[in-house]
Design goal:
- The protein is of the alpha/beta class and about 500 residues long.
- Among the domains are: about 150 residues, Alpha-D-Glucose-1,6-Bisphosphate, subunit A, domain 3 (Alpha-D-Glucose-1,6-Bisphosphate, Chain A, domain 3, 3-Layer(aba) Sandwich), CATH 3.40.120.10; about 90 residues, Alpha-D-Glucose-1,6-Bisphosphate, subunit A, domain 3 (Alpha-D-Glucose-1,6-Bisphosphate, Chain A, domain 3), CATH 3.40.120.10; about 100 residues, Alpha-D-phosphohexomutase, C-terminal domain (TATA-Binding Protein, 2-Layer Sandwich), CATH 3.30.310.50.
- It contains 16 helices and 21 strands.
- The strands form four sheets. Strands 1-5-4-2-3-6 form a six-stranded mixed β-sheet, sandwiched between helices. Strands 16-21-20-19-18-17 form a six-stranded antiparallel β-sheet, covered by helices on one side. A five-stranded mixed β-sheet has the order 8-7-9-10-11, sandwiched between helices.
- A hairpin with a 5-residue loop joins strand 14 and strand 15.
- It starts with 19 loop residues before the first strand and ends with a helix.
C-alpha cells in the first residue's frame, strides 16, 4: 500500500521588525514571494492606487533578481505598473524612488544582514518609510488567506513589451537629491584618506562614486558580488569587519566607513582600526546635527539604543522619543513628531531632511563631514575627536550578544522566558541593585536598569531564531558583568 503524504500547510508569513525573512528553498520560495506580492497588490487595489505603480528593487543575494521578477509578475497581473531596478541597489534607493515617483508602495527583495542562506521581502510605505503595523496588518491578513491558491501572474517580458515596466537606475537622481543637504564638493575636496567596506553588498561602489573626482582618496574593498558574503553575516559589526579594521590599524587611512549587505545600515572605525560601535554612531550623528547644523528638532531612538541621546538632548534642548525596535516604529514616529533623526541600535539611521528611512550611504557621508569639521576645530585624528565627544555625551560601554536557538525550540523558549523574566525579574545585576524593570511594548523582551545608570536588555529577535542581549554600561568591567548576567538569565543558569 502506498502512503500518500499530506500536502504541507502554507507557510505562516509574519513581518518582523524589518520585513519577512526566511531560508531560501525552505520557507523562502517563489510561491511564498508571490503570496507576499499578492498581499501588496491587493492593498494597492483596495486603496484605488493601481495607477501610481509600485517600485521594485533587490539586493545581491542569491537569486534576488529572480525573486524580484516573480514579485513583479504578480503586480503586473493586476495591471499595476512596476518601476524595476536595472541592477541591485541599496534598499533606501527604493524609498527614494517611491517618494520621487509618488508610487503606491515599494518592495525590496533583501534579507539585509541575515545569514547568506536567507532572503527576504521588505515593504515601503508611500512616504518612503518602512511600512508600519497599520499597513502590514492588512497585507498579512491577505497573505494568511492566499496559501494553497494559484496566484495570478503575467509574464514579465510580456508586460514590459506592453509598457507596464520601467527599468530605473537611481544613482543620478539620488546624487541630485543628496546635494540638497550634503556638500559633496566640499567632501571631494578634502585632503583625507577613506577606507570603505560595503561587505560585498548592494552598496558597493556608491560612496566611492559619490566622492570621486576630487582630492579625497577612497579605497573600497569587497566590491564584487558574492552571495556567500565571504562567509560572514553582512552586518557591519565585529568580527565581520575585522579585515577592514586590520587594514586601518596598519596605517594610511584617516577613517573607515562601513555598510551592511543592503546598505541601509552604517558603521565606522577610527584611524587606528578601533570600531566605533552603533550606539556611538547614534550619539555622533545627533551631535553633528545639533552642533554643526544647528538643528533642535526631536530625535527618535529605539528602546535598545543609547542613553547618550537623553544626555545630549538635555544639553542641546532636544526632545527624545523612544519606540519599539524596528524602523516600522521609528519611521512613523519621526513623521509624527517632525524629528530630525531616527536611530536604531543595529546601525540604521534616518533623517528628516533626507528620508524617513534608514540610509547607510547618507549616514556615512554625514559622519565623514562631522570628522572633517572636527579636524577644522582642532580635534583630529578621529580617535581624538571621539574622545572629546564622550567628554560631552558621557560613557557608552556597549556590547550585544546573540544567543542562537534551534528554530524548532525557539517558540517554546520564548514563551517560557517571557513569563520567567516577568515573574522572577532579577533584583540585582553585576552587583548593582535593579532600580527599574520595563516590559517592551512589543511583548518580546525586558529592559533592566541598575543604580549607576547602566542597563541590560533581553529581547527575542523578530526576524531570526535568536535572543539578543544588549547592555550599555558605565565601565568596560560593568559591561562584561552585565552581559554575563544576561546570558545566565537566557540560558536558565
Amino acid at each position: 500500500m502506498t502512503n500518500i503524504a499530506e500536502a504541507p500547510a502554507p507557510t505562516k508569513i509574519v513581518f518582523g521588525t524589518d520585513g519577512w525573512r526566511a531560508k531560501v528553498a525552505d520557507e523562502y520560495t517563489f510561491e511564498n514571494v508571490r503570496r507576499c506580492a499578492d498581499g501588496v497588490a491587493r492593498y494597492v487595489i483596495d486603496r484605488g492606487e493601481q495607477a501610481k505603480g509600485v517600485v521594485l528593487a533587490y539586493d545581491r543575494r542569491f537569486a534576488s533578481e529572480h525573486f524580484a521578477i516573480a514579485a513583479s509578475e504578480v503586480l503586473l497581473a493586476h495591471d499595476i505598473p512596476v518601476a524595476y531596478a536595472s541592477h541591485a541597489v541599496p534598499t533606501q534607493m527604493s524609498s527614494y524612488e517611491v517618494v520621487e515617483r509618488g508610487a503606491a508602495a515599494g518592495i525590496v527583495i533583501t534579507a539585509s544582514h541575515n545569514p547568506w542562506t536567507d532572503n527576504g521581502f521588505k515593504i515601503k510605505a508611500p512616504t518612503g518609510s518602512a511600512a508600519g503595523p497599520d499597513i502590514l496588518s492588512v497585507i498579512e491578513a491577505t497573505i494568511a488567506t492566499n496559501g494553497g491558491t494559484a496566484i495570478e501572474r503575467r509574464p514579465f517580458a510580456d508586460a514590459e513589451a506592453a509598457g507596464l515596466v520601467e527599468r530605473f537606475d537611481p544613482f543620478e537622481g539620488y546624487e541630485r537629491y543628496l546635494r540638497r543637504t550634503v556638500d559633496l564638493d566640499a567632501l571631494r575636496a578634502a585632503d583625507a584618506s577613506v577606507l570603505v567596506e560595503p561587505m560585498w553588498g548592494a552598496g558597493a561602489g556608491w560612496i566611492s562614486r559619490l566622492l570621486s573626482g576630487g582630492r579625497i582618496r577612497v579605497t573600497e574593498i569587497h566590491q564584487e558580488r558574492n552571495p556567500y558574503f565571504g562567509g560572514v553575516n553582512p552586518e557591519p559589526i565585529r568580527p565581520n569587519v575585522d579585515e577592514a579594521l586590520g587594514m586601518l590599524s596598519r596605517g594610511g587611512y584617516d577613517i573607515g566607513l562601513l555598510l551592511d549587505g543592503d546598505a541601509d545600515r552604517a558603521g565606522a572605525a577610527d584611524e587606528r582600526g578601533d570600531f566605533i560601535h552603533q550606539l556611538e554612531v547614534t550619539g555622533l550623528l545627533m551631535y553633528y546635527l545639533a552642533e554643526y547644523r544647528g538643528l533642535r528638532d526631536p530625535v527618535v531612538i529605539s528602546v535598545n539604543n543609547t542613553s547618550m541621546a537623553e544626555r545630549l538632548g538635555k544639553h542641546y534642548g532636544i526632545q527624545i522619543y523612544e519606540t519599539s525596535v524596528g524602523f516600522k516604529y521609528i519611521g512613523p514616529k519621526m513623521m509624527e513628531t517632525g524629528a530630525m533623526m531616527g536611530a536604531e541600535e543595529s546601525g540604521g539611521f534616518g533623517f528628516g531632511m533626507h528620508l524617513p528611512e534608514r540610509d547607510g550611504v547618507y549616514a556615512d557621508l554625514l559622519l565623514l563631514d562631522l570628522f572633517l569639521r572636527e579636524r577644522a576645530a582642532g580635534r583630529w585624528p578621529v580617535s581624538k575627536a571621539l574622545a572629546a565627544f564622550h567628554e560631552l555625551a558621557g560613557p557608552s560601554n556597549y556590547r550585544r550578544v546573540d544567543v542562537h536557538i534551534e528554530r524548532a525550540a525557539y517558540p517554546a523558549l520564548k514563551d517560557r522566558l517571557l513569563v520567567d523574566l516577568r515573574v522572577h525579574a532579577p533584583s540585582e545585576l553585576a552587583g548593582e541593585p535593579v532600580t527599574k524593570t520595563v516590559a517592551l511594548d512589543t511583548n518580546d523582551g525586558f529592559k533592566f536598569f541598575v543604580s549607576d545608570g547602566s542597563w541590560l536588555l533581553v529581547r527575542f529577535s523578530g526576524t531570526e531564531p535568536l535572543v539578543r542581549i544588549y547592555t550599555e554600561a558605565t565601565t568596560p568591567e560593568v559591561r562584561e558583568a552585565m552581559i554575563d548576567a544576561g546570558e545566565r538569565l537566557v540560558r536558565g543558569a
